[in-house]
Amino acid sequence: MVREFANSLNIAIEEYFTQVKLAMLNHSSDFVYDLKTNGSSASFKWIKKEGTIKILHGSVELSKDEPATSKDALIEALLFKNENLERELDDVKKINHNLNNELTTSRDELKKIANSQSELEKVLYAKFVQLLNTKKERIRVLEGCLSKYE
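The line above is the sequence of DNA repair protein XRCC4; the predicted structure tokens follow.
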């Protein structure tokens, strides 16, 4: 069918495909579109206008498609899916809430640990300074005793 239209228009198949794409995607003013229905079938045609001449550029026969499921069944399935998604969303919200609580607790604990570390460092430095001063004093005393014996 495609070859027949391309041959009747005296153009290559690739060029025909390009023109059909332009006709379908751009709704060009160069084309007239015609849809005729007949019960459960229809015919769609696109006709190219070249001046006062109209040339049938392509056509497609269409048939009515019956849905595989009824609207009620579709609505019921969508409502069921919606309920499942709402439950899943609630579960995810609970998990998120728990994670936020854990994060807050962890931050508080980290602050306490950082404060404890800082206080411990201050105590250790103070004791170190005391120990260092004691050792310096002991060294002076020993040096004084040593100088007496010399």
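Note on the example: The beta strands are 31-38, 41-50, 53-63. The chain has a mean pLDDT of 88.
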